[in-house]
Structure prediction request, 427 residues.
Amino acid sequence: MNILLLGSGGRESALAWKMSQSELVDKLYIAPGNGGTSQYGTNVALSPLDFDGIARFVTDNAIDMIVPGNEDPLVAGIYDRFAGSGILIAGPSQAGAALEGSKDFAKAFMSRHGIPTARYQSFTAETIEEGYRFLETLQAPYVLKADGLAAGKGVLIIDTLEEAKKSLAEMLGGMFGKSSATVVIEEFLSGIECSVFVLTDGNGGYRVLPVAKDYKRIGEGDTGLNTGGMGAVSPVVFADETFMSKVESRIIIPTISGLKAEGITYRGFIFLGLINVGGEPMVIEYNVRMGDPETEAVMLRIDSDLVALLKAAAEGNLGEMPLAISDKAAVTVMIVSGGYPGSYPKGKAITVDGPIEESILFHAGTKVDENGQLVTSGGRVISVSSVGATVEEALAKSYRTASKVNFEGKNMRRDIGQDLLRLQNAR
Ligand code: AMP
Ligand code: GLY
Prediction:
């Protein structure tokens, strides 16, 4: 079959790498892709939001399945646009994508289906006074979330009541444009987070992919500004059988049956952002795609054919389709541009002192310039992924490989996975 993968990050590099290994694939196209994805398929200069352009491309190139890597096309309704056209889409309908596209919808969905999450209420400019009163009933720190998509920046965690009220007014006043016209205020939960990925077929069938933990802050020891993610580790020591059986019975099954009961079509990945509160899993957020950089670790632990799984999910029939998961550990360390997540230069020449033997380099913000030189083109530049018998071994490989990739201003966290290793040693 011919596949069109949408996106241009490290996640799409890892998805393309994995899909390109499938015997089911004739041609793999990546739109728009990056400086590394052309190793796995053909880059196409199309925006994932250009549905008319995608429709023409799909017809001209006999595409059988579209795999949206990022949330934007899903929230904009790519599933609905192509549903019934004979083209498979691995993803949710626009109604399902609201699990990520609207935090207010996601919270209300969880309340309707008894899915454990922080206590919350939602407010608009008209109900701001009630918002202030609700804040007064909570303990610090205060969690304020823009309802809509805000490029990962829409969540504020604030220490004092006074500042929380001020931020509520600013958010409702347009701090994140239309995305914060509604603000969700919720109770602060304390615990360690992890990312659980589920592939579902919209007919009650699902598979649970390897669990991962990502590292969101720029600074070592989880300090400094939030980023898109600086590294990831899989498996996650505390996501053991007991924890995962709670996740399955209290969160995954009610989510899938809730979608079905509400008549929402969902045939793709569900990303559960969970927090472990004293051994009890609670949902921090839903995303309707895979995580980045978690995918750059998770794909290395999937032994089965991803294309067969995605096709079966998109057809609504995961049935007995096998999902074999490796016992090995996989990690990824993200190499970023100096200055990121603030402003950073682009166009820095990247050198790789090959050969790269113990890791895979998943390109994220790279491109090949007019002179054929590989250069930086984003904040997160290259994700260095490795497999090992243990997390320590995989990390050692990624850090050795990362030292071979160089460009001016290169930065990375050197403590990826250290918290999990400490937890493991304490068990
Ligand atoms: P979200 O975009 O909803 O994932 O929020 C971004 C980050 O804010 C999460 O990964 C958590 O680290 C943090 N966060 C969100 N909601 C809460 C909460 N209720 N309690 C504690 N931390 C939270
Ligand atoms: N790594 C978190 C995310 O993809 O949203």
In short: The mean pLDDT is 96. DSSP finds 13 helices and 26 strands in the chain. The CA atoms of residues 118 and 187 lie 5 Å apart.
